[in-house]
Design a protein that fits this description.
27% helix; Aminopeptidase; alpha+beta; 179 residues; eight-stranded mixed beta sheet; single chain
Length: 179
């Protein structure tokens, strides 16, 4: 998992926006959006309040050649939107599997952005995954609808720790077979 993965992270184009690899210049907007408690509370890994240096560390990990997760910015500049409207990622798992994760900035909620981003990433399948998984907190029904709208099937309940909530949260897990 060396330099090859860094070279392979390509841009995925849609009509409304592009999914492109992160850049260090994205840090300001990422920090702005992830500093919002409404975003942080719907993720497992974003703390609230956002500690100094956490966004820089996150972007540094995202652009390192030996990363285990590819992260794309939902970049709306082609439609005169902001450079970052949210992030979407694929974490490499074993056996040709990956896990999708995403968040969208509150100003773009209920616009179809998350569904379009997940659909585009699934169709592009940049890691060549046979199966993609995703999980959402059970109190985030909008994210659950995104997954079912994109053809993911519900496979069970679990729980995950949320840093922002400082507690375990019930989740729904979804699966999409691609091959």
């Amino acid at each position: 998992m060396g330099l090859d993965h860094a070279a392979l992270q390509s841009t995925v184009e849609t009509e409304r926006f592009d999914l492109r690899p992160l850049r260090r210049s994205d840090m300001g907007l990422i920090a702005h959006y992830t500093g919002d408690v409404r975003v942080a509370r719907m993720t497992t890994s974003i703390p609230h309040p956002l500690p100094p240096g956490s966004t820089e560390a996150f972007v540094s990990r995202a652009v390192t050649p030996d990363r285990t997760e590819d992260i794309w910015a939902m970049d709306g500049t082609k439609a005169e939107g902001p450079e970052v409207m949210g992030l979407i990622s694929l974490e490499r798992l074993d056996r040709d599997q990956s896990e999708v994760g995403y968040w969208v900035a509150p100003g773009f909620w209920n616009t179809g952005l998350a569904s379009d981003a997940v659909r585009a990433l699934v169709e592009a399948n940049p890691l060549g995954s046979a199966t993609m998984f995703a999980s959402v907190f059970q109190d985030n029904q909008a994210s659950a609808r995104v997954l079912t709208n994109c053809g993911f099937e519900y496979i069970g309940d679990a729980e995950a720790f949320s840093v922002a909530r400082n507690s375990k949260v019930a989740t729904w897990t979804y699966l999409k077979r691609l091959k």
